[in-house]
Amino acid sequence: MKLITLIFALLTLGVQIITAQNTKFQVQVSVDDELKSTSLYLKQLDLWFLPPTIIDSFKLNDGKIFIDDIDTSLESYIQVENYSILIFPDPNKTIEFQFTKDENGKINYTSSHDSLYKYWLNYQDRYQRNGGYDNEHKNSLKLDFDAYLDDQQNHFDKRSFEVDSVCDSNDFPESFRRYMKTTMKYEHEAKIIDYFEHHFYYATNKESLDYYMVDDDFYKRFTNALTNDNHINLGHYSSFVDSYIDNLYFRAYEHKDPDLKQYNAYQFKFNTAKNTLDGKTRDLAMCAILRNNISKISDFDSYQSCGELIQKFDSICVERKFYDHVKKQYEEKALLGLKPEFCLLNNSGDEICLSNWSGKNIVLYFTGSNCIPCKKEQPIIENLASEYPEITFLAVSLEHNTYELWKKSIKPKTNLSHLYAEGGWSSDQLSEFNLQSIPRFILVNKQGEIVNGNASYPSNNLKKDLEKYFER
Description:
Strand content: 15-25%
Shape: globular
Helix content: 40-55%
Oligomer: single chain
Order of helices and strands: HEEEEEEEEHHHHHHHHHHEEEHEHEEEH
Number of domains: 3
Protein backbone atom coordinates (compact mmCIF):
# COMPACT_ATOMS: atom_id res chain seq x y z
CA MET A 1 0.00 0.00 0.00
CA LYS A 2 2.86 2.38 0.81
CA LEU A 3 4.45 1.73 -2.56
CA ILE A 4 1.19 2.51 -4.38
CA THR A 5 0.95 5.73 -2.38
CA LEU A 6 4.52 6.56 -3.35
CA ILE A 7 3.88 6.03 -7.03
CA PHE A 8 0.67 8.07 -6.95
CA ALA A 9 2.32 10.91 -5.06
CA LEU A 10 5.17 11.08 -7.51
CA LEU A 11 2.86 11.00 -10.49
CA THR A 12 0.85 13.88 -9.10
CA LEU A 13 4.02 15.86 -8.54
CA GLY A 14 5.33 15.31 -12.04
CA VAL A 15 9.03 14.54 -12.46
CA GLN A 16 11.93 15.38 -14.71
CA ILE A 17 13.79 12.10 -14.64
CA ILE A 18 16.30 12.60 -17.41
CA THR A 19 18.48 15.60 -18.12
CA ALA A 20 21.38 13.79 -19.77
CA GLN A 21 22.10 12.90 -23.39
CA ASN A 22 19.40 11.55 -25.68
CA THR A 23 19.80 7.77 -25.81
CA LYS A 24 17.50 4.75 -26.01
CA PHE A 25 16.51 2.04 -23.55
CA GLN A 26 14.24 -1.02 -23.37
CA VAL A 27 11.48 -2.26 -21.09
CA GLN A 28 10.05 -5.79 -20.88
CA VAL A 29 6.61 -6.22 -19.27
CA SER A 30 4.95 -9.51 -18.35
CA VAL A 31 1.46 -10.02 -16.91
CA ASP A 32 -0.48 -12.95 -15.50
CA ASP A 33 -3.61 -14.46 -17.09
CA GLU A 34 -5.90 -12.00 -15.26
CA LEU A 35 -4.30 -9.09 -17.09
CA LYS A 36 -4.04 -10.59 -20.55
CA SER A 37 -6.01 -8.72 -23.23
CA THR A 38 -5.63 -5.46 -21.28
CA SER A 39 -3.64 -2.53 -22.64
CA LEU A 40 -0.31 -1.19 -21.49
CA TYR A 41 0.34 2.54 -21.91
CA LEU A 42 3.63 4.34 -22.09
CA LYS A 43 2.95 7.92 -21.01
CA GLN A 44 4.96 11.08 -20.69
CA LEU A 45 4.84 12.74 -17.28
CA ASP A 46 3.91 16.31 -16.61
CA LEU A 47 2.90 18.45 -13.67
CA TRP A 48 0.04 16.98 -11.65
CA PHE A 49 -2.61 19.36 -13.02
CA LEU A 50 -1.77 18.67 -16.68
CA PRO A 51 -2.96 15.51 -18.46
CA PRO A 52 -0.20 13.07 -19.46
CA THR A 53 0.60 12.49 -23.11
CA ILE A 54 0.32 8.93 -24.41
CA ILE A 55 3.62 8.05 -26.10
CA ASP A 56 2.47 4.59 -27.18
CA SER A 57 0.04 1.80 -26.26
CA PHE A 58 0.30 -1.98 -26.51
CA LYS A 59 -2.06 -4.94 -26.24
CA LEU A 60 -0.98 -7.62 -23.77
CA ASN A 61 -2.69 -10.50 -25.55
CA ASP A 62 0.34 -12.80 -25.21
CA GLY A 63 1.04 -11.79 -21.63
CA LYS A 64 4.39 -10.21 -22.51
CA ILE A 65 5.58 -7.16 -24.41
CA PHE A 66 9.05 -5.86 -25.22
CA ILE A 67 9.24 -2.10 -25.74
CA ASP A 68 12.36 -1.12 -27.64
CA ASP A 69 13.99 2.24 -28.44
CA ILE A 70 12.30 4.33 -25.75
CA ASP A 71 13.62 7.88 -25.86
CA THR A 72 15.36 8.79 -22.59
CA SER A 73 14.77 12.48 -23.27
CA LEU A 74 11.11 11.91 -22.34
CA GLU A 75 10.24 11.41 -18.67
CA SER A 76 7.87 8.47 -18.79
CA TYR A 77 5.91 5.84 -16.89
CA ILE A 78 4.02 2.69 -17.74
CA GLN A 79 0.38 2.06 -16.83
CA VAL A 80 -1.53 -1.21 -16.64
CA GLU A 81 -5.22 -0.63 -15.91
CA ASN A 82 -5.18 1.91 -13.05
CA TYR A 83 -1.69 1.07 -11.81
CA SER A 84 1.22 3.28 -12.85
CA ILE A 85 4.93 3.21 -12.16
CA LEU A 86 7.75 5.55 -13.11
CA ILE A 87 10.63 4.36 -15.24
CA PHE A 88 14.24 5.22 -14.48
CA PRO A 89 16.03 4.48 -17.75
CA ASP A 90 19.19 2.43 -17.81
CA PRO A 91 20.68 2.46 -21.34
CA ASN A 92 22.86 -0.54 -20.48
CA LYS A 93 20.09 -2.87 -19.35
CA THR A 94 16.54 -4.00 -20.12
CA ILE A 95 14.18 -3.03 -17.30
CA GLU A 96 11.78 -5.86 -16.44
CA PHE A 97 8.34 -5.61 -14.82
CA GLN A 98 5.97 -8.42 -13.85
CA PHE A 99 2.36 -7.41 -13.05
CA THR A 100 -0.16 -9.69 -11.32
CA LYS A 101 -3.76 -9.23 -10.22
CA ASP A 102 -5.04 -10.92 -7.05
CA GLU A 103 -8.55 -12.16 -6.24
CA ASN A 104 -9.48 -8.75 -4.80
CA GLY A 105 -8.60 -6.99 -8.04
CA LYS A 106 -5.44 -5.43 -6.61
CA ILE A 107 -2.51 -5.15 -9.01
CA ASN A 108 0.96 -5.96 -7.70
CA TYR A 109 4.31 -5.93 -9.40
CA THR A 110 7.93 -6.98 -9.16
CA SER A 111 10.75 -5.38 -11.08
CA SER A 112 14.42 -5.70 -11.85
CA HIS A 113 14.59 -2.32 -10.06
CA ASP A 114 12.89 -3.52 -6.86
CA SER A 115 15.75 -2.37 -4.61
CA LEU A 116 15.66 1.09 -6.22
CA TYR A 117 11.93 1.59 -5.55
CA LYS A 118 12.28 0.33 -1.98
CA TYR A 119 15.08 2.79 -1.28
CA TRP A 120 13.07 5.58 -2.90
CA LEU A 121 10.13 4.89 -0.56
CA ASN A 122 12.43 4.74 2.45
CA TYR A 123 14.06 8.03 1.45
CA GLN A 124 10.68 9.76 1.24
CA ASP A 125 9.60 8.39 4.62
CA ARG A 126 12.74 9.76 6.27
CA TYR A 127 13.22 13.08 4.51
CA GLN A 128 10.08 14.23 2.74
CA ARG A 129 7.20 13.47 5.07
CA ASN A 130 4.94 16.53 5.42
CA GLY A 131 6.90 18.24 2.67
CA GLY A 132 10.11 17.90 4.69
CA TYR A 133 8.80 20.10 7.51
CA ASP A 134 9.31 17.64 10.36
CA ASN A 135 10.07 18.53 13.99
CA GLU A 136 13.79 18.68 13.30
CA HIS A 137 13.24 21.25 10.58
CA LYS A 138 10.87 23.28 12.75
CA ASN A 139 13.60 23.53 15.38
CA SER A 140 16.03 24.63 12.69
CA LEU A 141 13.65 27.43 11.69
CA LYS A 142 14.09 29.00 15.14
CA LEU A 143 17.74 29.76 14.36
CA ASP A 144 18.93 33.05 12.93
CA PHE A 145 19.40 33.10 9.17
CA ASP A 146 23.14 32.36 8.96
CA ALA A 147 22.87 29.46 11.41
CA TYR A 148 19.84 28.18 9.49
CA LEU A 149 21.79 28.25 6.21
CA ASP A 150 24.64 26.26 7.79
CA ASP A 151 22.21 23.73 9.26
CA GLN A 152 20.38 23.24 5.94
CA GLN A 153 23.64 22.88 4.05
CA ASN A 154 24.74 20.15 6.46
CA HIS A 155 21.44 18.31 5.89
CA PHE A 156 21.80 18.70 2.14
CA ASP A 157 25.38 17.39 2.12
CA LYS A 158 24.40 14.42 4.28
CA ARG A 159 21.55 13.42 1.95
CA SER A 160 23.63 13.98 -1.15
CA PHE A 161 26.40 11.73 0.21
CA GLU A 162 23.83 9.06 1.09
CA VAL A 163 22.31 9.08 -2.39
CA ASP A 164 25.73 8.80 -4.03
CA SER A 165 26.72 5.92 -1.75
CA VAL A 166 23.49 3.99 -2.29
CA CYS A 167 23.56 4.50 -6.07
CA ASP A 168 27.21 3.42 -6.27
CA SER A 169 26.86 0.34 -4.07
CA ASN A 170 23.64 -0.85 -5.79
CA ASP A 171 24.58 0.11 -9.34
CA PHE A 172 21.41 2.19 -9.73
CA PRO A 173 21.01 3.90 -13.11
CA GLU A 174 22.37 7.42 -13.48
CA SER A 175 18.87 8.66 -14.33
CA PHE A 176 17.78 7.89 -10.75
CA ARG A 177 20.82 9.66 -9.27
CA ARG A 178 20.15 12.74 -11.42
CA TYR A 179 16.50 12.79 -10.42
CA MET A 180 17.31 12.53 -6.72
CA LYS A 181 20.00 15.24 -6.87
CA THR A 182 17.79 17.62 -8.86
CA THR A 183 14.72 17.27 -6.63
CA MET A 184 16.95 17.54 -3.56
CA LYS A 185 18.42 20.81 -4.84
CA TYR A 186 15.09 22.52 -5.44
CA GLU A 187 13.61 21.24 -2.20
CA HIS A 188 16.64 22.67 -0.39
CA GLU A 189 16.40 26.05 -2.11
CA ALA A 190 12.63 26.33 -1.55
CA LYS A 191 13.21 25.84 2.18
CA ILE A 192 15.78 28.65 2.18
CA ILE A 193 13.32 31.01 0.51
CA ASP A 194 10.54 29.92 2.86
CA TYR A 195 12.71 30.61 5.92
CA PHE A 196 11.53 34.20 6.19
CA GLU A 197 7.86 33.33 6.38
CA HIS A 198 8.23 30.28 8.62
CA HIS A 199 10.84 31.82 10.93
CA PHE A 200 8.28 34.44 11.92
CA TYR A 201 6.03 31.72 13.36
CA TYR A 202 8.73 29.69 15.13
CA ALA A 203 10.99 32.48 16.46
CA THR A 204 10.71 33.18 20.17
CA ASN A 205 11.28 36.96 20.02
CA LYS A 206 8.79 38.18 17.39
CA GLU A 207 8.76 41.81 18.51
CA SER A 208 12.32 42.47 17.37
CA LEU A 209 11.98 40.46 14.18
CA ASP A 210 12.46 42.12 10.80
CA TYR A 211 10.20 39.85 8.76
CA TYR A 212 12.21 40.10 5.54
CA MET A 213 15.65 41.37 6.40
CA VAL A 214 17.61 40.41 3.26
CA ASP A 215 18.30 42.70 0.31
CA ASP A 216 17.40 42.30 -3.36
CA ASP A 217 20.66 40.49 -4.14
CA PHE A 218 19.45 37.52 -2.13
CA TYR A 219 16.50 37.02 -4.47
CA LYS A 220 18.58 37.65 -7.60
CA ARG A 221 20.65 34.63 -6.57
CA PHE A 222 17.71 32.35 -7.28
CA THR A 223 16.87 33.68 -10.73
CA ASN A 224 20.49 33.96 -11.84
CA ALA A 225 21.75 30.58 -10.69
CA LEU A 226 18.85 28.22 -10.21
CA THR A 227 16.08 28.76 -12.75
CA ASN A 228 16.20 26.12 -15.49
CA ASP A 229 13.55 25.64 -18.17
CA ASN A 230 14.56 21.98 -18.52
CA HIS A 231 12.92 21.33 -15.14
CA ILE A 232 9.47 22.87 -15.65
CA ASN A 233 7.81 19.44 -15.40
CA LEU A 234 9.40 18.75 -12.02
CA GLY A 235 7.12 19.17 -9.01
CA HIS A 236 9.93 20.29 -6.70
CA TYR A 237 10.97 22.92 -9.24
CA SER A 238 7.39 24.19 -9.44
CA SER A 239 7.28 24.48 -5.63
CA PHE A 240 10.59 26.34 -5.66
CA VAL A 241 9.32 28.86 -8.24
CA ASP A 242 6.04 29.31 -6.32
CA SER A 243 7.98 30.00 -3.12
CA TYR A 244 10.16 32.55 -4.89
CA ILE A 245 7.19 34.58 -6.18
CA ASP A 246 5.16 34.27 -2.97
CA ASN A 247 8.00 35.51 -0.82
CA LEU A 248 8.66 38.50 -3.05
CA TYR A 249 4.99 39.40 -2.56
CA PHE A 250 5.11 38.89 1.24
CA ARG A 251 8.30 40.94 1.39
CA ALA A 252 6.65 43.78 -0.56
CA TYR A 253 3.65 43.61 1.74
CA GLU A 254 5.81 43.88 4.88
CA HIS A 255 7.78 46.76 3.37
CA LYS A 256 4.57 48.52 2.29
CA ASP A 257 5.46 48.55 -1.40
CA PRO A 258 3.43 51.37 -3.08
CA ASP A 259 2.59 49.07 -6.01
CA LEU A 260 0.30 47.13 -3.70
CA LYS A 261 -1.98 50.18 -3.53
CA GLN A 262 -2.83 49.90 -7.23
CA TYR A 263 -2.61 46.11 -7.74
CA ASN A 264 -4.30 43.19 -6.02
CA ALA A 265 -2.17 40.24 -4.87
CA TYR A 266 -2.56 38.31 -8.14
CA GLN A 267 -1.76 41.31 -10.31
CA PHE A 268 1.32 42.06 -8.22
CA LYS A 269 2.57 38.46 -8.38
CA PHE A 270 1.87 38.30 -12.12
CA ASN A 271 3.89 41.46 -12.74
CA THR A 272 6.66 40.17 -10.47
CA ALA A 273 6.93 36.94 -12.44
CA LYS A 274 6.90 38.90 -15.70
CA ASN A 275 9.69 41.21 -14.57
CA THR A 276 11.98 38.76 -12.75
CA LEU A 277 11.65 35.50 -14.72
CA ASP A 278 11.72 34.57 -18.37
CA GLY A 279 11.04 31.69 -20.78
CA LYS A 280 9.12 28.61 -19.72
CA THR A 281 9.88 29.19 -16.04
CA ARG A 282 8.01 32.48 -16.25
CA ASP A 283 5.10 30.62 -17.88
CA LEU A 284 5.11 28.07 -15.06
CA ALA A 285 5.00 30.82 -12.41
CA MET A 286 2.23 32.74 -14.17
CA CYS A 287 0.20 29.57 -14.61
CA ALA A 288 0.38 28.88 -10.86
CA ILE A 289 -0.64 32.47 -10.06
CA LEU A 290 -3.60 32.36 -12.46
CA ARG A 291 -4.73 28.93 -11.25
CA ASN A 292 -4.94 30.32 -7.73
CA ASN A 293 -6.65 33.48 -8.96
CA ILE A 294 -9.29 31.49 -10.88
CA SER A 295 -10.02 29.35 -7.82
CA LYS A 296 -10.78 32.51 -5.82
CA ILE A 297 -13.14 34.17 -8.35
CA SER A 298 -16.33 35.11 -6.49
CA ASP A 299 -17.95 37.95 -8.44
CA PHE A 300 -17.95 39.67 -11.82
CA ASP A 301 -15.20 42.16 -10.89
CA SER A 302 -12.78 39.42 -9.83
CA TYR A 303 -13.74 37.41 -12.91
CA GLN A 304 -13.01 40.36 -15.19
CA SER A 305 -9.72 41.20 -13.45
CA CYS A 306 -8.53 37.60 -13.85
CA GLY A 307 -9.56 37.63 -17.51
CA GLU A 308 -7.35 40.66 -18.15
CA LEU A 309 -4.34 38.82 -16.72
CA ILE A 310 -5.10 35.78 -18.88
CA GLN A 311 -5.16 37.99 -21.98
CA LYS A 312 -1.71 39.31 -21.05
CA PHE A 313 -0.51 35.75 -20.45
CA ASP A 314 -1.71 34.75 -23.93
CA SER A 315 0.45 37.45 -25.53
CA ILE A 316 3.71 36.38 -23.86
CA CYS A 317 3.34 32.67 -23.08
CA VAL A 318 6.00 30.42 -24.65
CA GLU A 319 4.93 27.00 -23.30
CA ARG A 320 1.35 26.98 -24.60
CA LYS A 321 0.16 24.06 -22.48
CA PHE A 322 0.19 26.40 -19.46
CA TYR A 323 -1.96 28.99 -21.21
CA ASP A 324 -4.34 26.32 -22.54
CA HIS A 325 -4.78 25.00 -19.02
CA VAL A 326 -5.67 28.33 -17.37
CA LYS A 327 -7.89 29.29 -20.29
CA LYS A 328 -9.84 26.05 -19.82
CA GLN A 329 -10.13 26.65 -16.08
CA TYR A 330 -11.30 30.20 -16.68
CA GLU A 331 -13.94 29.09 -19.19
CA GLU A 332 -15.27 26.57 -16.68
CA LYS A 333 -15.69 29.40 -14.18
CA ALA A 334 -17.34 31.70 -16.71
CA LEU A 335 -20.50 29.65 -17.13
CA LEU A 336 -20.85 28.33 -13.58
CA GLY A 337 -24.38 28.62 -12.25
CA LEU A 338 -25.85 29.71 -15.58
CA LYS A 339 -29.19 28.07 -16.43
CA PRO A 340 -29.06 27.81 -20.23
CA GLU A 341 -32.07 27.34 -22.46
CA PHE A 342 -32.38 26.85 -26.20
CA CYS A 343 -34.77 25.18 -28.65
CA LEU A 344 -33.52 23.39 -31.77
CA LEU A 345 -34.71 20.81 -34.32
CA ASN A 346 -33.87 17.18 -33.68
CA ASN A 347 -33.24 14.56 -36.38
CA SER A 348 -36.95 13.67 -36.42
CA GLY A 349 -37.94 17.23 -37.34
CA ASP A 350 -39.33 18.16 -33.90
CA GLU A 351 -38.34 21.32 -32.06
CA ILE A 352 -36.84 20.28 -28.75
CA CYS A 353 -35.82 22.53 -25.87
CA LEU A 354 -33.09 21.86 -23.32
CA SER A 355 -35.70 22.18 -20.57
CA ASN A 356 -37.36 19.03 -21.97
CA TRP A 357 -34.69 17.16 -19.99
CA SER A 358 -35.33 19.07 -16.76
CA GLY A 359 -34.47 16.96 -13.72
CA LYS A 360 -31.74 15.01 -15.53
CA ASN A 361 -27.99 15.42 -15.64
CA ILE A 362 -26.97 16.48 -19.15
CA VAL A 363 -23.76 16.39 -21.17
CA LEU A 364 -23.90 19.05 -23.88
CA TYR A 365 -21.62 17.94 -26.70
CA PHE A 366 -21.08 20.73 -29.21
CA THR A 367 -19.95 19.22 -32.48
CA GLY A 368 -20.27 19.57 -36.26
CA SER A 369 -20.54 17.22 -39.22
CA ASN A 370 -17.34 18.70 -40.74
CA CYS A 371 -15.35 18.68 -37.48
CA ILE A 372 -12.45 16.21 -37.72
CA PRO A 373 -11.51 16.20 -33.97
CA CYS A 374 -15.19 15.61 -33.17
CA LYS A 375 -15.19 12.41 -35.23
CA LYS A 376 -12.34 11.11 -33.07
CA GLU A 377 -14.39 11.70 -29.89
CA GLN A 378 -17.68 10.37 -31.32
CA PRO A 379 -17.25 6.61 -30.66
CA ILE A 380 -15.90 7.27 -27.16
CA ILE A 381 -18.82 9.46 -26.13
CA GLU A 382 -21.21 6.88 -27.64
CA ASN A 383 -19.68 4.30 -25.28
CA LEU A 384 -20.00 6.66 -22.32
CA ALA A 385 -23.67 7.20 -23.16
CA SER A 386 -24.17 3.42 -22.97
CA GLU A 387 -22.30 3.21 -19.68
CA TYR A 388 -24.31 6.08 -18.12
CA PRO A 389 -27.91 5.63 -19.35
CA GLU A 390 -29.20 7.86 -16.54
CA ILE A 391 -27.35 10.83 -18.05
CA THR A 392 -28.64 12.59 -21.18
CA PHE A 393 -25.91 12.99 -23.81
CA LEU A 394 -27.01 15.73 -26.15
CA ALA A 395 -25.04 16.28 -29.38
CA VAL A 396 -25.62 19.83 -30.62
CA SER A 397 -24.30 20.16 -34.15
CA LEU A 398 -23.16 23.63 -35.25
CA GLU A 399 -23.94 23.51 -38.95
CA HIS A 400 -23.60 25.40 -42.20
CA ASN A 401 -24.92 22.33 -44.02
CA THR A 402 -28.66 22.11 -44.70
CA TYR A 403 -30.86 20.28 -42.26
CA GLU A 404 -31.34 17.37 -44.69
CA LEU A 405 -27.60 16.92 -45.26
CA TRP A 406 -26.99 17.01 -41.52
CA LYS A 407 -29.70 14.43 -40.86
CA LYS A 408 -28.08 12.02 -43.34
CA SER A 409 -24.78 12.27 -41.44
CA ILE A 410 -26.31 10.81 -38.25
CA LYS A 411 -25.88 7.08 -37.73
CA PRO A 412 -29.16 5.09 -37.56
CA LYS A 413 -28.27 3.60 -34.19
CA THR A 414 -26.94 6.09 -31.68
CA ASN A 415 -26.93 6.52 -27.92
CA LEU A 416 -26.98 10.31 -28.26
CA SER A 417 -29.81 12.76 -28.73
CA HIS A 418 -29.07 15.01 -31.74
CA LEU A 419 -29.99 18.65 -32.33
CA TYR A 420 -29.35 20.89 -35.34
CA ALA A 421 -28.01 24.45 -34.78
CA GLU A 422 -28.32 26.30 -38.07
CA GLY A 423 -25.77 29.05 -38.63
CA GLY A 424 -22.86 27.35 -36.85
CA TRP A 425 -21.02 29.68 -34.49
CA SER A 426 -23.51 32.49 -35.09
CA SER A 427 -26.57 30.50 -34.00
CA ASP A 428 -28.76 32.87 -31.96
CA GLN A 429 -29.97 30.03 -29.79
CA LEU A 430 -26.43 29.30 -28.53
CA SER A 431 -25.01 32.83 -28.12
CA GLU A 432 -24.85 32.64 -24.31
CA PHE A 433 -22.27 29.83 -24.51
CA ASN A 434 -19.71 32.03 -26.31
CA LEU A 435 -18.42 29.02 -28.24
CA GLN A 436 -14.98 29.51 -29.78
CA SER A 437 -14.05 25.96 -30.77
CA ILE A 438 -15.43 22.43 -31.04
CA PRO A 439 -15.63 19.80 -29.76
CA ARG A 440 -16.77 21.37 -26.49
CA PHE A 441 -18.35 19.57 -23.55
CA ILE A 442 -20.52 21.32 -20.93
CA LEU A 443 -22.10 19.63 -17.91
CA VAL A 444 -25.57 20.66 -16.71
CA ASN A 445 -26.96 19.27 -13.44
CA LYS A 446 -30.49 18.19 -12.56
CA GLN A 447 -31.35 21.73 -11.48
CA GLY A 448 -30.51 23.00 -14.96
CA GLU A 449 -27.31 24.73 -13.82
CA ILE A 450 -23.95 24.50 -15.55
CA VAL A 451 -21.49 22.83 -13.18
CA ASN A 452 -18.57 22.62 -15.64
CA GLY A 453 -18.38 24.99 -18.59
CA ASN A 454 -15.50 23.24 -20.35
CA ALA A 455 -15.32 19.58 -19.36
CA SER A 456 -12.59 17.20 -20.51
CA TYR A 457 -12.72 15.37 -23.82
CA PRO A 458 -14.05 11.78 -23.71
CA SER A 459 -10.60 10.62 -24.85
CA ASN A 460 -9.08 12.32 -21.83
CA ASN A 461 -10.93 12.56 -18.49
CA LEU A 462 -14.62 13.19 -19.24
CA LYS A 463 -15.55 10.03 -17.34
CA LYS A 464 -13.84 11.41 -14.23
CA ASP A 465 -15.71 14.68 -14.68
CA LEU A 466 -19.01 12.79 -14.80
CA GLU A 467 -18.20 11.01 -11.55
CA LYS A 468 -17.13 14.28 -9.95
CA TYR A 469 -20.04 16.52 -10.96
CA PHE A 470 -22.97 14.10 -11.31
CA GLU A 471 -24.37 11.86 -8.60
CA ARG A 472 -25.24 8.39 -9.88
